[in-house]
Prior knowledge:
The protein is α+β, with helices and mostly antiparallel strands. It has a domain at 2-80: Phosphatidylinositol 3-kinase Catalytic Subunit, Chain A, domain 1 (Ubiquitin-like (UB roll), Roll). Helix content is 79%, strand content 10%. Strand 1 and strand 2 (11-17) form a beta hairpin.
Amino acid sequence: MTSVKINHKDEKRRFTLASNKFEDLIAQIKTVLNLDAAANLVLRYKDNEGDLILFNTDKEFTDALSFKQNADVLSIHVKVSKKDKKDKKEKKDKKDGDKKKDKKEKKDKKKKDKKDDSDSSSSSSGADDASSESVSSSEETPEEKAKRKETKKASKSDKKAAKKAKKAAKKLSKKDKKANKKKDKADKKIQEPESSEDSSEDETIVAKKKVLKDRLRAAKQEVKASRRAFHKTKREAKKEFSDVKNQRKSEKQAAKLVKLAEKAAADKAASDKAAADKAAEPSAAVVVDKPKGAASAASADHTVTANILDD
Length: 311
């Protein structure tokens, strides 16, 4: 008797094995983990160095039993072979493909049978018509043919006349219905005052109706008045808003104009100052140049007087 603990993915199970055969171990693991009988399992145990050792024979299984962990329990790591999973997937895909193929074949077969049936029926009907026509054409004389054509024309004209008559009857029935409705309404209007005069109950109903109508009218008038007031206030608010907007606009424009005027005045003052400064500069030059001119004139006079004396 061997106590075995198996680890498969996140699942851990424990069971007791009666024999020390590898085949019995595999069978027990498959039943415990609810695996397919054809599943290919890969088993490993942990040795004293902490390595996972693969085993798949009776001898290797007996060696694994010597590395039992605490409380004489053999811990085995179980893994389903990827090859086995791949085979399963392939089988499933093949099965699905076969099913799809069978369905398609059945569908195509049904369509083909349906088409064949329709073709056969149409061909048979066409043959029947052709045979009947040939028989009738061979048996009929020219007089009979003319007679048949006339009867066809007559039947067509009768059908047209019947359709026209039906339409006319429908129109008349509609008109009659409208006329009857109008008549019924007029009769009701005539009968209402008579009935109200006959019984006091009818009078009370009429009075109640009148009161309700008056209330309804008053309510409608109130609604209209409130709507008018709402629209009036809306218009006033819009006007006020536009006035405020225009005022702000005009204020901005005025401020702009003031700034422009101030700028123009400053520019004028600057230009005037520059002109005054410019005008002051040439006058100073004249004052400076005057003595020079006077000296030259005096020297000229002196030379003239000296020449006269020499003569």
